[in-house]
Amino acid sequence: MGQTLTEKVLDDHLVDGELETGEEIGIEIDQVLTQDTTGTMVWLQFEAMGLDEVQTEIAAQYCDHQTYQFDFKNTDDHRFLRSAAGKYGAYFSRPGNGICHNVHRENFAAPGKTLLGSDSHTPTPGGLGQLAIGAGGIDVTVAMGGAPYYIEMPEIVNVRLEGELPEWATAKDVILELLRRLSVKGGVGKILEYTGPGVESLTAPERMTITNMGTELGATSSIFPTDEQTKDYLERLDRGDEYTELQPDEDAEYDDEIVVDLSDLEPLIAQPSMPDNVVPVSEVAGQDVDQVIVGSCTNGGYEDILPAAKMLEGREVNPTTEMIVAPGSKQASEMLAREGWVAEMMAAGVNFSEATCGACIGIGHVPASDSVSLRTFNRNFEGRSGIEDDNVFLCSPEVAAAAAIKGEIVDPRDLADELGDLEAPGIELPDEYDGSKTDLITPDEAPDDELVKGPNIGDVPLRDELDSDIEGEALLKMEDNITTDHIIPATQDILMYRSNIEKLSEFTLSRVDDTFAERAQEADGGFLVAGENYGQGSSREHAAMCPMYLGIESVLAQSFARIHRANLFNFGIVPLTIDEETYEEIDQGDEIEIVDDVYDAVTSGQEEFTVRVNGEDEYTATLDASERERDILAAGGKLAWTKEQAEESGSGAAPADD
Ligand code: MIC
Ligand code: SF4
């Protein structure tokens, strides 16, 4: 039987297990990336494991999320990260050089390689045929130390593209269409592999908009085959020699197939406040727009900003609307500046931001109260923009620019009819990506060789071995699709404590219930209860670390998002799955007890657990976990487990810290 492209790359990197859906596999990781808000813990854990040198072909530390450095704590984090990159042998991308996914795709992403990153949008270079996966920080730490990365072999879904995009429809509309059809949990446990005749019409950057936002489907990764488009893009980056042809076999078998006819697509928009709340732009046309932002790791490339710039050429941003361009990388800004486009946009009324995540997580450009913001980003979870009752829509740069011109949501096709001289800008790649590399410091040029820890850099929290008795209050009951932005928000006031878990944990779940952290600390143990897809969104392991720090021992949910589920194991919190009926029966404040001896049950492979509520009714909860995950849980988390492993084997991969 032939192989899918995903299977080929996995096969090439397989060090443990077999490529059978649902089986645990271990794969070798070629490249890792980490960023400023997850990276501090990555390196603190690297240090705590006693590792002394990066083992992967490439490790890159980016400073991208909080580059405005509003507080010395952010700057301390960046200084620590530079020192860690220098000491352990990683590339260091200075604050302002750009968003990790953009800078990585420009410099390192390569077909056929594996990439693990402590950011959920790590799958972006899947558009170049790289198998890239987002993970919690400690998983990245361990991979950087040279150990394999373990995942459950996902289902592989064939997304067959047919036809070609019509004018004004874009790559963003392809992924919005998939979100409309599949929802934010439609990709959980799956890798989306794009095939079909429609693929060749999409340039590599367009493909990367699609693979970037595959994360919003909950997918483990997304990948395109490689072809002339891939080669062409790599050549323009002056990395043509890294091209390899990668295609699935003709008789490859997939677990499922979805067909998207590109020629049927039209401009789409995700309404507040979920990326899958998608409708045609025409359905919401006419709403006043207060703010427009073009940028982010989804649509912040040179190729994304240029269409908006062309649409604005000789025009003006509507007086009632503010427009900001937030480029994905400094290279994109530099090139657009040299070509005169930055000046053109400024003259049209655009504010040009530094290359940062910024507004995507509520750092800067927070919308006004009761206002509408149109963004080319990938997430519009409620409150993420920095204000609780936000109205954030997600769309393509073309739809965003059209709204900026008109001052209201408008289908760009209608705006073109109205204006008479507005042409569809289409997609255009530069002849060469020739931005400077000054802000990317190679391991050889590193100015530091010792860690520099300011007062904001705390310790890595640890939990003891798993308890046998777990009982306590259902401290919080939550609905479906709770995001990691609910669990640990990423706004400025909170983000600066990512290296200080004691302080950060005070904000745990504050967006759901601001009394939670205090109640949890007082209760000294207890449960979280949630509906479907608990922990969707970010890879931030802090969303497990902080509940652990507050004493949470188990989460009972109808289902879990992939990365967050792994993070719960990594921090010794027992993730138990319950059915809808059990979910309905448990109320916040109920006393819950796991009747089984939890330590014995976890280590002996038991799957069904009995949960007693208020000393009376009993329900079944399931622990669906591999032997490795059970061992990690029993040890009290991955750091403790990795040290145990190293002690037992006497291996240098992760020696004990004494
Ligand atoms: C996000 O888009 O939510 C983030 C902020 O990039 C996170 C990482 C983080 O929380 O630091 C992600 O996607 O993993
Ligand atoms: Fe940054 Fe937003 Fe992309 Fe996350 S989704 S990496 S915050 S730009």
UniProtKB/TrEMBL annotation:
SUPFAM superfamilies tied to this protein: Aconitase iron-sulfur domain (SSF53732), LeuD/IlvD-like (SSF52016)
Keywords: Iron, Iron-sulfur, Metal-binding
All copies of domain Aconitase A/isopropylmalate dehydratase small subunit swivel, residue ranges: 517-580
CDD domains: AcnA_Bact (cd01585), AcnA_Bact_Swivel (cd01579)
Gene3D superfamilies linked to this entry: Aconitase, domain 3, Aconitase, domain 4
Signal peptide: none
Molecular-function GO terms, alphabetical: 4 iron, 4 sulfur cluster binding; aconitate hydratase activity; metal ion binding
GO biological-process terms attached to the record: tricarboxylic acid cycle
Every Aconitase/3-isopropylmalate dehydratase large subunit alpha/beta/alpha domain range: 7-285
Pfam families reported for this sequence: Aconitase, Aconitase_C
Record's protein name: Aconitase
Organism: Natronobacterium haloterrestre (Halobiforma haloterrestris)
